[in-house]
Design brief:
Blueprint lengths: L19 H5 L5 H11 L7 H12 L2 H4 L1 H8 L3 H31 L6 H10 L9 H35 L22 H16 L8 H24 L16 H11 L3 H9 L7 H27 L15 H34 L7 H22 L3 H29 L6 H44 L1
Helix pairs in contact: 2-6, 3-12, 3-13, 5-6, 5-11, 5-13, 6-7, 6-12, 6-13, 6-16, 7-8, 7-16, 8-9, 8-14, 8-15, 8-16, 9-15, 10-14, 11-16, 11-17, 14-15, 16-17
């Protein structure tokens, strides 16, 4: 499979000969590690600004639009404060992952490491885990696949809900964005039928095996998504009710739903090492990380808060579903949907690059293309089928965040630091801090998954009962 971009592989690396004296130094010595780090930074790659843009893009998607509902689940005061804390913890875990990658790559003499590499080599540092270190890579790849395919499921639900809403209000859509009194909602098909309608277009999209062909469309998608966010902010800020009478703290039983949605939004840990590996000067990546994630966190807190204040208890699974039925904001829904449609291919690329090469390597060369395309079709149909089974945008986001994002973003990085530095003077306080973060992620994983599944079952049963009475 020919592709110029590979999220699982690092950039090209040219070897530089070292003097015999350098070769004799211990591989873990500080000077050797520093030279290795400088040597990695000497290659051609993306600039500071380019890396910052990629980091922002990797963290801004459908999760951002679901944060007003997350703030509702946590409360008007507790929600923003919790988002700030989760943002700080998530960025800290990203920093831990980069630090461990640097240390292990220098120690092993490798120019770069993926997330899976780092966990595998970290486990090799512990004697009783060494024989099982390959499971570290497999666990990371499993959660990467689950996370990315989970994003794809969310995209199906997002696209169907927004397109359905635009179609149903088409006959009554006006140029007046101040009132919806003239909007006439004409019920159309079930949202799951819209997913089936969208399915062929998604399949055609993922047949593009080289992402450079999607680059122009991706650029346009980024622009229209930015314009859409500006218009969403404008509407919310100009329609804040007075006075604001909303609960400051939400119900405890709803907080796991907040956790799942919030950790889903901080979805960028999977792109941290690929971006750092492709920088011209990876020494500057920490600055990129803190600047970029600071912007992302403030964006999350601000939109989550003002979105909830604007729409109150009527806030939907995506804030776009609350926008008025006028041409301007109907266009916003369609433009953001186009951006999400293109982003599907980018999110799909990660599991495709993990699964397809392994399958293609086991077949005759003449069947490689057929196997490649068949797996792509199968994966897309699989994500569509899951979305059809659970057509609830807010609950799908919370479930995906709780199951997989929490593992990659909160549970694994602290343990990786313990494994990597356990025999190099790691302080007791650092160990305790890492255990607390991982336990927090594990509790969120269990509670968020449980509550999301319970809510999914409850809503499904409620819809069945409503459908029964409508038939009667």
């Amino acid at each position: 499979m020919n592709s110029d971009i590979n999220y699982q592989d690092g950039p090209a690396f040219s070897q530089i000969e070292e003097s015999p004296a350098e070769d004799e130094e211990p591989v873990h010595s500080p000077t050797r590690m520093q030279r290795e780090y400088e040597r990695i930074g000497g290659r051609t790659g993306s600039s500071f600004f380019q890396t910052l843009i990629h980091l922002l893009k990797g963290n801004i998607g459908t999760g951002l639009l679901g944060l007003p509902l997350a703030v509702k689940n946590a409360g008007l005061v507790m929600g923003p404060l919790s988002l700030l804390v989760m943002g700080i913890v998530a960025v800290h875990c990203m920093s831990i992952l980069v630090k461990c990658s640097h240390h292990l790559s220098a120690k092993l003499g490798k120019p770069f490491l993926t997330y899976g590499d780092a966990v595998e080599y970290g486990m090799e540092n512990v004697s009783w885990l060494r024989n099982h270190s390959r499971w570290g890579r497999r666990v990371v790849n499993f959660f990467l696949i689950v996370t990315q395919l989970g994003f794809c499921c969310v995209y199906f639900v997002f696209l169907s809900d927004n397109v359905k809403q635009v179609v149903e209000a088409a006959n009554g859509t006006t140029g007046n964005c101040e009132t919806n009194q003239t909007a006439v909602i004409v019920p159309s098909y079930d949202s799951r039928l819209y997913m089936l309608f969208i399915l062929p277009f998604i399949i055609l999209l993922v047949f593009t095996r080289n992402l450079k062909f999607l680059a122009p469309f991706s650029f346009v998608a980024n622009v229209v998504m930015c314009v859409s966010l500006v218009l969403i902010y404008y509407y919310c800020l100009t329609h804040i009710p007075n006075p604001v009478d909303l609960p400051k703290v939400g119900r405890a039983i709803d907080f796991p739903l907040f956790f799942g949605t919030a950790i889903f939004a901080f979805e960028g840990i999977g792109v941290v090492l690929p971006l750092e590996n492709k920088m011209q000067k990876p020494q500057s990546f920490s600055m990129v990380l803190y600047l970029g994630m600071g912007i992302v966190t403030m964006l999350y807190i601000s939109l989550g808060t003002i979105g909830y204040i604007c729409f109150g208890n009527h806030i939907g699974g995506s804030i776009t579903l609350n926008l008025p039925d006028c041409w301007l904001y109907q266009a916003v829904k369609l433009l953001y949907s186009f951006g999400i449609y293109i982003t599907y291919a980018l999110q799909f690329y990660v599991p495709a690059e993990i699964l397809i090469p392994q399958a293609v390597a086991r077949v005759d060369p003449r069947w490689e293309l057929l196997v490649d395309l068949s797996i792509r079709v199968g994966l897309v149909i699989f994500t569509c089928a899951l979305a059809i089974m659970i057509p609830e945008l807010d609950l799908v986001i919370s479930l995906v965040g709780s199951v997989s994002s929490s593992a990659l973003a909160l549970i694994l990085p602290p343990f990786l630091q313990i494994l990597t530095f356990h025999n190099e003077g790691l302080s007791t306080w650092v160990v305790l801090k890492n255990i607390v973060i991982s336990v927090f992620g594990l509790v969120g994983f269990v509670a968020g998954t449980y509550i999301s599944i319970v809510e999914i079952i409850s809503r499904s049963q409620s819809k069945q009962i409503d459908g029964y009475f409508q038939v009667m």
